[in-house]
Hints:
The complex is a heterodimer of chains A (293) and B (235). By secondary structure, chain A is mainly alpha-helical. Chain A is 74% helix and 2% strand. Chain A contains 11 helices and 2 strands. Chain A has helices at 3-35, 42-59, 64-91, 98-120, 144-166, 168-178, 180-185, 190-212, 224-237, 242-262, 265-282; strands spanning 134-136, 141-143. Chain A has a two-stranded antiparallel ribbon with strand order 1-2. Chain B has 10 helices and 10 strands. In chain B, a hairpin with a 2-residue loop joins strand 4 (56-63) and strand 5 (66-67). Chain B folds into 2 domains: 3-80 and 155-231, Rossmann fold (3-Layer(aba) Sandwich); 91-152, no CATH class. The radius of gyration of chain B is 17 Å and the shape is globular. Magnesium ion binds at residues 43-44, 86, 159 of chain B.
Amino acid sequence: MAFGPHLILATLEGLVTSAVLALMALGLSLVFGVMRVVNVAHGEFYMLGAVLAWAIASAFGGHPSIGFLAALVISPLIVGGVALVADRLVLKRLDYNPEATIVATIGLLYILQQVALTFYGPEARPVQAPFTYRVSLPWFGYSGYKLAVIGASILLLLATWFVLSRTRIGMIMRATQYDSETAQAFGIPVGRVYTGVFAVGAMLAAVAAVLIVPISQAHYLMGRDPLLLSFIVVIIGGLGSLRGTVVAALLIGVSDGIISVFFSPTLAKIIATFVVAMVLVFRPQGLFGTAAR
Amino acid sequence: MADALSVRGVDCFYGETQVLYSLDLSLRQGEVHCLLGRNGAGKTTALKCIMGLVPARAGSIRLGDVELTRLPPHEVPRAGVAYVPQGRRLFAEMTVAENIEIGLMARHMGSDVREAVLDLFPVLRERLRQRSGTLSGGEQQQLAMARALCLEPRVLLLDEPTEGLMPSMIAKIRQSVATLRDRGVSTILVEQRVDAVLKVADRVSFIENGRVRETVEVDRLREDPDIVKRYVGVT
Ligand SMILES: Nc1ncnc2c1ncn2[C@@H]1O[C@H](COP(=O)(O)OP(=O)(O)OP(=O)(O)O)[C@@H](O)[C@H]1O
Ligand SMILES: [Mg+2]
């Protein structure tokens, strides 16, 4: 393949990575922004979403699209439910203390991982894509499903933006994020907002996972790398900034795609980590974050 | 007439440190009741305790028939107590309109209340789309009051609303407190400046080390400025 088409292919692959990463990082960023909780178990919500997607898809017979669509709806709901229980049982009791919740979510990470290992096993299993249509570009054919993943991610990001900036629920979330004490003094049930945000954050990770399993398989350790990348995205983009999260996910995803194709995946990781270090040194609040008040 | 708000024997702690000791305070219907005391005396804590933001470990806080200490914090404003915090604590990243909207949401008030509040603070009407963090100090204070008044409160808690403002703005704030009293709102006003207190208050309570030492009618202060000196030091 010539250089040009090769670059286009690498960019497309990078965009798919970005699309999934943006959703996942957005969940992490929301939870940190509103609740000040660093959710180390976020990657396990992603893993759980993927594993459940496999379980649900294989429970449904018939055309693969039926199983996939069922997984796309049911898996995030179950993961959201798990997050809800974790919030009530653990985080709430720790009073959302920033240090204590880090330790607690590390514990949650291992619990979820072991549960998956016990019931799902150590194998990597694929989920069939809902359709196998290939888009023929002038230089090569490309998976229609991958393009659909990019589209779905854009839709979800737009929906999140709309909810946050244009609806009452979004205003309540922002008020809680800026000043939870004053929010309470204006009748906002901060505890319930926290529970809801934690569940939604986990659901975003689960949706990202369901979208990815037809491309890369479900495995009980699959949450680790995306968690790391999400932290990188959130740090570069600025905590709690939707725009920053999207821009940073694009930056990381596309550069990862291109560098991996032309050089090596390891170099891509090295560069991403280097960029994080530079951001932390020169702009600790992230590219789009506002400095702490 | 029964008191609008009555605080009886309230103890309040930050962690293991006690800050309020058996605090007593009665707010009559429609009065402006000032709290005076040195820095760190516990004035802000008293207001936070009424709002449920810092829990009362002992004692009772009654709003009419409602025992506020039994409510979760977010139910206190819904019962009709509105709070203007020290330092204003606006949602700085949000617009003026959004800050007002949050006030309206607390008790499901409609656009009639919104218009009435904006009539009281007309400068805000011209700045609805502006980010509230970019308002001037005086405008921010007016927005903080407007946001609280959107609850149509029975009881209003004002924590140092004139702190750091220039004299003309202080007069404006004082005048709106008087207007609200005429409309029947009962107000607890925390103040540092005794001259401001004399102009607007009905009664004054002196707080020292987390206790109310004395509550007097404001006329007594005019006759006997020594009381002020005893609790606040300078006049
Ligand atoms: N969040 C907190 N944690 C621990 N101690 C606190 C906290 N807030 C206030 N305090 C302490 O409680 C005491 C009373 O503080 P408070 O803010 O109520 O005083 P104040 O009368 O409002 O003072 P000022 O006039 O300076 O506003 C002080 O000793 C203060 O240090
Ligand atoms: Mg104070």
